[in-house]
Amino acid sequence: MHTSAALNFFLPGQAVRSLSPLGAGNINHTWLVVPEQGQPLVLQRLHPQVFTDPQAVMANMRLVTRHLAAAEPPITFRLRTSPDGADCFVDAAGCCWRLLSHIGPARTLAPPLTAPQVRAIGGLLGRFHRLVADLDPDSLADPLPDFHITPRYLAQYDTLDPRRPPRNELERFCADTIETHRSGAGSLEAARDRLRLQVIHGDPKSTNVLFAAGEDRAIALIDLDTVKPGLLLHDLGDCLRSCCNRLGEEGEQGEGELFAADLFQALLAGYRDTAGDLLGPADRSFLVESARLISYELGLRFFADHLAGDRYFTITRPAQNLHRAAVQFRLHASILRQRSALDALVASLFA
Question: What is the CA 52 to chain-centroid distance, rounded?
Answer without folding.
Answer: 18
